[in-house]
Structure formats: C-alpha cells, structure tokens
Amino acid sequence: MYHLVCPIKYRRSVLTDEVSVTLQEICLGISSRYEIHFIEIGCDDNHVHFLIQSVPMISPKKIVNTVKSLTAREIFRLHPEVKRLLWGGKFWTSGYYINTVGQYANEEVIKKYLKNQGKTGEYKKIHTSQLKLF
Fold first, then answer.
1. What total number of domains does the chain contain?
2. Cβ distance 49 to 4 under 8 Å?
3. Contacts of 123 (CB under 8 A, 6+ apart)
4. Over its length of 134 residues, how does the chain's per-residue pLDDT go in tens digits?
5. In this structure, are residues 44 and 117 in contact, taking their beta carbons and an 8 Å threshold?
6. Which regions of 8-110 does DSSP assign to beta strands (E)?
7. Structural domain boundaries, residue 111
8. 59 within 8 A of 66, measured Cβ to Cβ
9. Helix, strand, or coil here: 37?
10. What is the reported pLDDT for 106?
11. Where residue 120 sits, what CATH number does that domain have?
12. How far lies 45's CA from each of 53, 75, 111, 120, in Å?
C-alpha cells in the first residue's frame, strides 16, 4: 500500500469539482485494467493524494507513471479548458512523493487525511494535527 502525492504543474489550481470527479472516474478505469487499486483519493486545488494498493510485482515508479500518464491524457481530452491553463502540455509536475503505508498502523489516519483534502473552515483547523505525521 502506498501514499502518493502528485502536484499539478506550476501548482495551478485546476482541480475544480468537475475535474476532481473526472479524475476519480479515470482512476476507477485504471483499477479495472491494472492491478492498481485506489483506496482513497483526496483532491486539493493544486495537488492530489492517492492511497493505492497494488501487487508487489509492480514497482512504485511504474504505478506512478501509469497513474500520472493515464489521468493527464484523459483530463486533457475531457477538459480542454484545463489544457489551456497548463501551457506546455503537462498536467503533473515531474516530481512526486510516494511512501509505503503500514496496513495496521497508518492506513486509517491517512484515509481520514485524504477524505478531508480541500476542505476549509473549522474542520481543517481542528484536524491539522494529522499533518504532523508527514
């Protein structure tokens, strides 16, 4: 199980509600074709957190490349307005963060953190202590 964080190119805030729903639908399609299962997806305006489970034969780098390339291609195809905001033809930055997640130690904490990505107000103020884990 992996916690993957992918920032949007130029840290542009392009993940509207509509684009976020499209991203999640694309990830469901990836799950049906590959042995990459999305347990949780947390979208913020300019980056996305994924909690991913896969088989040990697929390397973390291959998982990242698959997720980033397929999601970028489909988002550009389905949302041409996003492509106009991100000149240069790239959706994701070249960098990313990935770490393994202990199934019994950290999975629930990371799930809660990802579910609340992009939320503002009192909830975010109360639960910022979760960020200390990372």
1. 1
2. yes
3. 116
4. 999 999 999 999 999 999 999 999 999 999 999 999 999 999 988 999 999 999 999 999 999 999 999 999 999 999 999 998 998 789 999 999 999 987 554 677 777 777 887 776 544 444 433 434 33
5. yes
6. 36-43, 47-54, 97-100
7. 2-133
8. no
9. strand
10. 65
11. 3.30.70.1290
12. 24, 15, 18, 12
DSSP string, 90-130: -SB-S--EEEE--TTTTHHHHHHHHHTTT--SHHHHHTGGG
Of the candidates 95, 112, 1, the residue with the CA atom closest to the CA atom of residue 47: 95
CA distances from 61 to 20, 95, 115, 124 (A): 23, 11, 24, 31
Dig out the tokens for 25 from the structure.
């639908």
